[in-house]
Structures are given as C-alpha cells and as structure tokens.
Amino acid sequence: MGGVKRLCRRLINAGGIIFLHEREVSEADIQSIIADVSAFFSFPKPRTSNSDDSPAELTPGDDGTACRLSYSIERLRSTGLYGRETLTLCFVHELAHQALHRHRFMLFSSERWMHELAADIAVGLYAARHRLQTEGY
Fold it and tell me: In this structure, what is the dihedral angle of CA atoms 32, 33, 34, 36, given to the nearest 10 degrees?
C-alpha cells in the first residue's frame, strides 16, 4: 500500500448519502480523533499509551486529566475497526467510561454492563450529532 490511503465508497439508500472510509489511519490521525472526542466530552486530551492486552481500554481518573487511554492499532484493525469513523466511535465509547465512571445506575446487579450500555448510548448520540454511520462499529 506504500502509505497511500485507499478509500471505498458505500452508497446508503436512505438519502443517497455517500460515505468514504479510509482503509488506513495514521497515529497522528488517531491522536487527532482522541483530541476531538475529548473536546466533545469537555475533557482535556487523556494520556495515551500503546497496549498489548486489548484493542482500546480506558483507565478512569478523578477528572479528565487523570485518565489514561491505552490502545493497539493492530488489535483495533483485527477487530474490524480501521476507518476514521469506526475508530472515532470506539474512542467515544472508551471516553464515555470516564464521563460515567462515578455514576451508579443501580438498575441491575451488574453495574459494569450498565456502564457498557451507557457508553454505547453515548456512541449513538455522538454518531447522530456528527452524522456518522454506525454500521461498521
């Protein structure tokens, strides 16, 4: 591929909207995505590091400055998350955990699953606001 980004077009019948997906996203692109998503939540950009254990994982802090976001480009790609839109939604999900980490829903016995569902709801809201498709997420 030699650093050239390949794009594919997908025509969505609802409104005839064409979405362009980048097949490769650089590290600088990912840092830009994380900064944009952080601004959406009114957080400063979190500290980031590479991870060997999971595609993406957030370690919450007391505020936005204390959280740490670890990710692995290779693992993200292996799970099918490779375009800018899908990576954005992945990082929205992770940073939603920071926004919600002190909140207790107390609806079911498993708070962890409630937080996962709430983070996915945040993804849907972000996607709707920014007109992103969620098909590949």
Answer: 90
Which stretches of the chain drop beneath a pLDDT of 50?
1-20
Asked if residue 87 lies in contact with residue 30, where contact means CB atoms within 8 angstroms, the answer is yes
Strand partners, 58: 69
pTM above 0.70, yes or no: yes
SS (H, E, C) 11-26: EECHHHEEEEEECCCC
Tokens of 46: 């979190």
Instruction: Write out the two tokens for 133.
Output: 């498709």
**pLDDT tens digits along 2-12:** 333 333 333 33
Please state whether beta strands 68-71 and 56-59 pair in parallel, antiparallel, or not at all (unpaired): antiparallel
Copy the structure tokens of residue 25. Answer: 């996203």
